[in-house]
Amino acid sequence: MKKYYITTPIYYPSDKLHIGHTYCTVATDAIARYKRLIGCDVMFLTGTDEHGQKIEDKAKEAGVTPQEFVDKIVCGPRGVLDLWKLMNISNDRFIRTTDDYHVAAIQKIFKKLYDNGDIYKGKYVGKYCKPCESFWTESQLVDGKCPDCGREVQDAEEEAYFFKLSKYADRIQHLLEDTDFLEPRSRVNEMVNNFIKPGLEDLCVSRTSFTWGVPVDFDPGHVVYVWVDALSNYITALGYCNDKYDDYETFWPADVHIVGKEIVRFHSIIWPAMLMSLGEPLPKKVFGHGWLLLDGGKMSKSKGNVVDPYILAEMFGVDALRFFLMRTFPFGSDGNFSNELLIQTINTDLANDLGNLVSRTTAMVGKYFGGQLPAGCRDWDKPEPFDTELKEMAAGLREKYEAAMESFAPHKALDEVFKVIQRANKYIDENAPWALAKDMEANGKRLAHVMYNLLETTRICAVLLIPFMPDSMDKLFAQIGADDSCRTWDSAGQWGSLSDTAAPTKGENLFPRVDLEKALQALEEAAAAAKKAALPDLELEPQLEEKVDFDTFCKSDFRAVKVKACENVKKSNKLLKFTLDDGTGVDRQILSGIAQFYKPEELVGKTLMAIVNLPPRKMMGQESCGMLISAVHTEKGEERLNLLMLDDKIPAGAKMC
Ligand code: MSP
Question: What is the tens place of the pLDDT at every residue in 49-63?
Answer without folding.
Answer: 999 999 999 999 999
